[in-house]
Amino acid sequence: MTTVAAEPMLRLRDLAAGYGARWAISGVDLDLPAGRLVGVIGPNGSGKSTLLRAILGLVPRRHGTVTMAGGPLDRRRVAYVPQRELVDWSFPISAAQVVLMGRYPRIGPVAGAGGDDRRAVADALERVGMSDLGDRQIGSLSGGQQQRVFLARALVQGADVLLLDEPMTGVDRGTEEAITALMRQLRDGGATVVYATHDLETAADVSDLLCFVNGGVVAFGPPDETFTPHTLHATFGGELVIVDAGDHAHVHGGGHHDAGGGAATR
Ligand code: ADP
Ligand code: MG
Predict the structure, then answer these.
(1) Is the distance from the beta carbon of residue 50 to the nearest atom of ligand 1 less than 6 Å?
(2) What is the pLDDT of residue 41?
(3) Measured between alpha carbons, how far apart are the two ends of the chain, in Å?
(4) CA 209, 193, 152, 184 torsion: positive or negative?
(5) For the purposes of burial, counting CB atoms within 10 Å of the CB of 121, is it exposed (0-12), middle (13-18) or buried (19 or more)?
(6) Which atom of ligand 1 is nearest to the CA of 20?
């Protein structure tokens, strides 16, 4: 009998995706294991959002493949929380209804939501500290509260893969800590948690694996192997001031790259 090596939760091979004639990311090879917290970092316009969306097929894939546990991607098992700007906040639904959407893959078109679904929604809202705000219109909540609601939706979905696009951008300190704690819980439960950020210091502290992106993958691995002056320079170019380039690079800046450029063209 032969032993078959465990398949990674997500396997990306030579993935390319973009808009119109332009490829925003290309040549992406990644194996994302179960039970790991993966920080995707790079400056604005480097392709972080495109990478997350290409995994789901929300951006046209120009090339390459994405497999899940060795088979085709099952979108019901993937929870995606878009970047704040990509959400229509005027949509007239409550926070609890947004969370309930995470149950839709289970709720048949005929059955409608039942007691189990309502309990799952209430539990998830409690876990993200939003029990009192379930009836509020989603657009009336603060940015941090909206992120918590989207995380609650991901919780009720019970997904194996979470793709979170800049969940900590523009939220208060308490929400940042709550999001970090939830991402760790989900990771400890065996999920693959992938989140995009341009906050280098937090990413290095929080993530099991870092994926540096700039038009493609610049480096991928544990923070102590990848968070190097060389990788930082290759990813962020001259935008960073490296204060102390010893074993650990201390950095300032990043994240204010003109969106039109992209990595490959600089
Ligand atoms: P990031 O999330 O790292 O800021 P994006 O993935 O949003 O980067 O963008 C990567 C590149 O693709 C940028 O050059 C950006 O201008 C371009 N881009 C992003 N979204 C679109 C779009 N909807 N149409 C055309 N170009 C886009
Ligand atoms: Mg983005």
Answers:
(1) yes
(2) 96
(3) 51
(4) negative
(5) buried
(6) 25
Which tokens in the block code for residue 133? 């705000």
Query: Is 11 close to ligand 1, i.e. is its CB under 6 Å away?
Result: no
pTM of the predicted model as reported, rounded to 2 decimal places? 0.87
pLDDT digits (tens, 9 = 90+) for 93-148: 999 999 999 988 776 655 677 888 999 999 999 999 999 999 999 999 988 899 99
Measured distance CA(230)–CA(220) in Å, rounded: 13
**What is the chain's alpha carbon radius of gyration, rounded to the nearest angstrom?**
19
177 phi and psi angles, rounded to 5 deg: -70, -40
Higher pLDDT, 238 or 157: 157
Residue 202, amino acid: T
Contact 212, 195 (CB under 8 A): no
Look up residue 139 and give its DSSP letter.
G
Contacting residues for 22 by C-beta, under 8 A, at least 6 apart: 262
pLDDT for the residue numbered 113: 78
Q: Is any atom of ligand 1 closer than 6 Å to the C-beta of 169? A: no
Predicted local confidence at residue 264, as pLDDT: 35
The rounded distance, in Å, linking the Cα atoms of 261 and 266 is 7
Upper half-sphere CA count for residue 159 (Cβ side, 13 Å): 29
Query: Regarding predicted confidence, which is higher, 243 or 184?
Result: 184
Residue that the structure tokens 């990788």 belong to = 231
User: Whose alpha carbon is nearest atom 12 of ligand 1?
Assistant: 24
93 SS3 class: coil
